[in-house]
# Entry
Amino acid sequence: MSPTPTDELIQRPIGVFDSGVGGLTVAKAIHQALPHEKILYVGDTARVPYGTKSKDVIQQYTREILTKMDAAEVKAIVVACNTVSALAHDVLEEWKDLIPMIDVLTAGVEATIDHLYPHKNSQSIPTVGVLGTAATISSNAYESHLTQRWPELQVRSQACPLLVPLAEEGWDGQSDVVRRTLEVYLEPLQTHSLDAVILGCTHYPLFRDAIEAQLSSSPMIVDSGEAVAQSLRAQLQEHGLERLESTSASSSRPSTNWLECWVTDRPDHVQGLAERILGEPITEVAHITLD
Amino acid sequence: MSPTPTDELIQRPIGVFDSGVGGLTVAKAIHQALPHEKILYVGDTARVPYGTKSKDVIQQYTREILTKMDAAEVKAIVVACNTVSALAHDVLEEWKDLIPMIDVLTAGVEATIDHLYPHKNSQSIPTVGVLGTAATISSNAYESHLTQRWPELQVRSQACPLLVPLAEEGWDGQSDVVRRTLEVYLEPLQTHSLDAVILGCTHYPLFRDAIEAQLSSSPMIVDSGEAVAQSLRAQLQEHGLERLESTSASSSRPSTNWLECWVTDRPDHVQGLAERILGEPITEVAHITLD
# Structure
């Protein structure tokens, strides 16, 4: 990384990737926090979900996507996939020396600690709930990252494998199937008074209101998309890479000109869900191949 | 195919494949109908589910699996994946000249027609309900195969994308989430009196009782695993390939000696679900790579 970034470097997009289109919740949060940045989104929709796959397979896919993003000349990389953040940590570490990079797990853990630590006292140790896919939860990654930072912290984790298919089916927090499913998943956590709940999967912000409504305590809800956006802004500023204004050429184009979307399966298969997540039409969705 | 099969040919296993382990419901049905046959099961668990992928991707995966099974010297191939049966029909047709092959879609359609056709009369045209994944239903494959055979037949199709994740979560027909989900899916079909309902996905037999309990008419339930087993027996007999007795060496081995199971992701990830489907322990699960 050059100590004085060229304008060409600053103009480059931020690369954001996930196994599917769920990570668009993260891209949306980044756009809201950093509206002048362009985003190149890569969703490995041909191989989604990663949550059921093994560590070796996930690490191999991660290398393929990072190589693709590097070739596309992004200025920073956001890992919007919790499963990749949890299981391909070693692969991400190799790349962090080469390019500014932030992952949803690290950002979510930092936001949680930053919120709870100022209230630290020896009488009352906070309890954090973590919701995620089966792979994320069984990796124990959130728990181990949280307790590395604060060894006494109580962490209660719950796998919620049905929430991604429910989101993809378009069933929202109004659906009684969603509410009953959340009841089943949240019940084991409710025996504790929770101080924070981490939404450890990019689809879960779609159910944020329904999750909050069912929690008997009123914990801080940690949306890793928002956490990533704050952490990314700090990293871009540190490297002098923040894009402070949109070019006049691009500002006259349609509203989604900030986003270029690449997927590994047929674009029309995900367009509906992608637009539901973003709340606006996507103009540029391209098909790519990996490996 | 030689007109007089050698004993070596008869001893070969039957190849059964699916995108994941759901097709073990089919393997189990084949074992019950043809207890002397050995089965080589291939589950592409690293790339499951196929139901959300495009036709091109599914055809490419199908070619890879057929090539793998051919190299493993199976004597017949059973396509236990509805998505492959529906979307890779052209690929399967290329192979049918080379090896006896039966797919769940063709077998399910034939069993339905065989059941309904004898009662044919011009006053009352039967109505068939088809349940399947989003890809199977949107391919229209069941409807087009049924009406090719019987043009006047009424077909009502319903995609049920949540049933596979519910089965994989281990939630059964006793769960109120499953029952409420089935209610939502079956309601649009209930405006008609159904004469048959095809379970057009290999996971759905796990919910057979719950589905039957919610149907107000008492239709024939077509389980494609059972249909495949009958059709396979006929094809093996026609080619003189039926294995009439187990060898004494193998009959002294444990009960699952009839099944060899190959998966593309870590075997331990699917062992639990696989054993729940089969109702017995699996002794041989091996990891393979495709492509």
